[in-house]
Specification:
The chain is 36% helix and 22% strand. It is built from seven helices and eleven strands. Helix 5 packs parallel to helix 7 and helix 6 packs antiparallel against helix 7. It has two domains: 166 residues, Spore Coat Polysaccharide Biosynthesis Protein SpsA, Chain A, CATH 3.90.550; 83 residues, no CATH class. Helix 1 links the parallel strand 1 and strand 2. Strands 1, 2, 3, 4, 5, 6, 7, 8 and 9 form a nine-stranded mixed β-sheet that branches. Strands 10-11 form a two-stranded antiparallel sheet. By secondary structure, the protein is of the alpha/beta class.
Length: 273
C-alpha cells in the first residue's frame, strides 16, 4: 500500500499532470500545500482519491518532515509537482513494494527538462534522489537540498527515470535559484564554512567547465548552455552570499527565512565568524 506525497505551492500549471501520472500506483494521493494563491487548491480539492493538507512553509526538509507522518500507508513516494512518474518507474515501484527485502528506501534517476528540452548530458541525466521510502524515515534538517536519512546499504535503485520539468519559465526558475542559493549559504555558514576570494573566483567557472565540457553539456546546444550557465550562476550567488554573511559591514547582509514569502529578510544580527 502506497501514499504518494506531493508538496506544492502555486503549481496550477503542473499539479493535474503530476497527479495523473501517479493515479495507477497510488492507494492515497496526499497533496501538501504551503499557501497556494493561484487556484491550485481549487483544482485538487474535489478530485477523487486526493487528500489535501496545508501548513506554512519554513524550508523543504521541515515541510516534508511535517507531511510524511500524515501519510496513511507504510510506504511513501514523494513526487514534486514538476515531476511525472513514467511507466518504467511505476513498474519498478510495484516490484520494489512486492519484494523490498532489507531496503528502507529507493532512489530514482530523473530526466531533466530545460524549457521543454530534455538534457541528455551535463550530469543532469545521471543524478539520483531518494523518493520511495518507509514512512518512519525523515529528511536531514537542512534548509535546501536535504536528503532522506537512511543508510546506503538500505537503499535500492528503481528502474526508469522520472520526468523532471524543472525549468518551464526562466523568470520563475531564477527566483527559485535565488531562494535556494540563500538557503545553501545559510546552511554552509551554520556548518562553519566561509567563502574567500578564491572560492568566488574559481568555483563558479570550474562548475561551468565541469558541466559544459567534461560532462558534455555542450552537446545539449542552447538549452545545455543555459543550464550550465545557471548552475555556475547559482554557485556564484551561493558563495557571494556566504561571503556576505561573514564579511559585509551592512545590516542587510544578515538573512533569515520568512515563512510568509520564502524570501530572505535583513533582520538577523550577525553571527560571529
Amino acid at each position: 500500500m502506497l501514499t504518494v506525497l506531493i508538496p506544492c505551492k502555486d503549481e496550477r500549471h503542473n499539479i493535474l499532470d503530476c497527479i495523473d501520472s501517479v493515479r495507477d500506483i497510488a492507494d492515497e494521493i496526499l497533496v501538501a500545500d504551503s499557501g497556494s494563491t493561484d487556484g491550485t487548491l481549487e483544482l485538487v480539492r474535489d478530485l477523487p482519491g486526493v487528500r489535501v493538507i496545508e501548513r506554512e512553509y519554513v524550508n523543504s526538509a521541515d515541510f516534508k518532515n511535517w507531511a510524511i507522518p500524515q501519510a496513511t500507508y507504510e510506504w511513501v513516494l514523494l513526487v514534486d509537482s514538476d515531476e511525472r512518474v513514467t511507466m518504467d518507474v511505476a513498474l519498478s515501484i510495484g516490484k520494489a513494494l512486492a519484494e523490498p527485502g532489507d531496503h528502507e528506501a529507493f532512489a530514482v534517476r530523473r530526466d531533466t527538462y530545460m524549457l521543454g528540452h530534455r538534457l541528455r548530458y551535463s550530469g543532469a541525466q545521471s543524478a539520483t534522489c531518494i523518493r520511495l521510502f518507509r514512512r518512519h524515515l525523515r529528511y536531514h534538517p537542512r534548509r535546501v537540498h536535504a536528503d532522506i536519512d537512511v543508510a546506503a546499504d538500505k537503499t535500492g535503485i528503481l528502474d526508469g527515470k522520472l520526468e523532471h520539468h524543472t525549468c518551464q519559465c526562466l523568470n520563475r526558475f531564477m527566483q527559485t535559484q535565488n531562494r535556494y542559493s540563500t538557503w545553501a549559504a545559510l546552511d554552509a555558514f551554520d556548518a562553519g564554512k566561509r567563502a574567500s576570494f578564491w572560492s568566488l573566483a574559481l568555483r563558479p567557472p570550474m562548475k561551468f567547465m565541469q558541466f559544459y565540457f567534461i560532462r558534455l553539456g555542450i552537446l545539449d546546444r542552447t538549452p545545455g548552455l543555459m543550464w550550465c550557465g545557471i548552475v555556475a550562476y547559482y554557485n556564484l550567488m551561493k558563495y557571494a552570499k556566504l561571503w556576505e554573511l561573514s564579511h559585509s559591514s551592512t545590516k542587510a547582509a544578515q538573512y533569515v527565512e520568512s515563512p510568509s514569502d520564502n524570501l530572505p529578510q535583513a533582520t538577523k544580527s550577525k553571527k560571529a565568524a
